[in-house]
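> @MW can you paste both from yesterday?
MW: sure, first one:
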Amino acid sequence: MDYAPRYRTVAERAGLVFEPGDPVVVERAKGGTTTDFGAIEAIPALDGEPVGAAEAERAVALVRAAWGLFDLAGRSEGAFAGRRACPRRGVSERGFALTPVSGF
């Protein structure tokens, strides 16, 4: 899979073992015009099913790791070089602002 290195970085930062196998289709949902543009249009039934504590903890670890990497990228020199920021928002002297997400 082409994206494996990107996912490996997040998984390792989350302290998880990354051993991807072949993708397995577990459900199909009918798409439409929104799906044609790469956005979610239908909610799969599996999304409404509860997950166990271990899977929830794994998901939280992955989300925290991904946001941590996003934060590092946003703070790196040149991450937003040449981008203009909205004057109504709190903007740093480097010309951009990262808004923290609460709840994590």
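MW: second:
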Amino acid sequence: MPHPGSPGTTFFSDFVVTGTVGGADATSTPDEVTALLGDDFVESGDESRRLRGYELVEFARQRVSHEDPWIGLYVMVQAHRLEGGGPPRLPVPARPPSPVSLHPRLPLRLGQQFRQA
């Protein structure tokens, strides 16, 4: 995440507080989003689902049939891309840790299930 006060932090904080990006939110129609954010986007989907991406931002919509209007589902900001992309700072383990390595004090044996009290 960028340092506090950086443009990326300001952008993300504004989205969290307002739920909008450039005035567009999940209730905005596709035409309204285009008018507010421009036509430099990538879109995928089919007649009932649509995902539109503007670099850091994605708008998801759905509709029952091609005759129905699009209904906004969500707007998502790709916060992990705010520093300019590239690999994540923390290395991803090659395989998930075993339950024993997560809880070394629990005496687990193969085939035994852990139950919470």
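> thanks! Residues 7-85 form one domain.
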